[in-house]
Specification:
Elements (H helix, E strand, L loop, with lengths): L1 E6 L2 E3 L5 E9 L4 E9 L6 E7 L4 E3 L7 E6 L4 E6 L8 E9 L2 E4 L3 E5 L2
Parallel strand pairs: 2-11
Antiparallel strand pairs: 1-3, 3-8, 4-5, 4-9, 5-6, 7-8, 9-10, 9-11
Length: 115
Amino acid sequence: QVQLVESGGGLVQPGGSLRLSCTASGITSSIYTMGWYRQAPGKQREWVASLTSGGETNYADSVKGRFTISRDNAKNTLYLQMNSLKPEDTAVYYCAAHRRGGSDWGQGTQVTVSS
């Protein structure tokens, strides 16, 4: 199992930036992909970005060029740098660790982009 603890969410104005962090503990060596997902009110959870154990990054079209996913292996921490934020980015953001034996999820952190 992998336990995930997120931080960094909050209220930001349009055009602003936030950096989300997700610290993993447990059997972290079993992770092959980590990702960020989000769920807006009344909508299904959607995939935002992912990072494989080999360092490959992928992004949803809606955030490409604005968001950057990265990791610090020494700290067992995943990051999501969010720039040029838009109101439509408002959602609860979740961190996920994908293992060959299953997936583990963080508790979610609220990101609100509003004037």
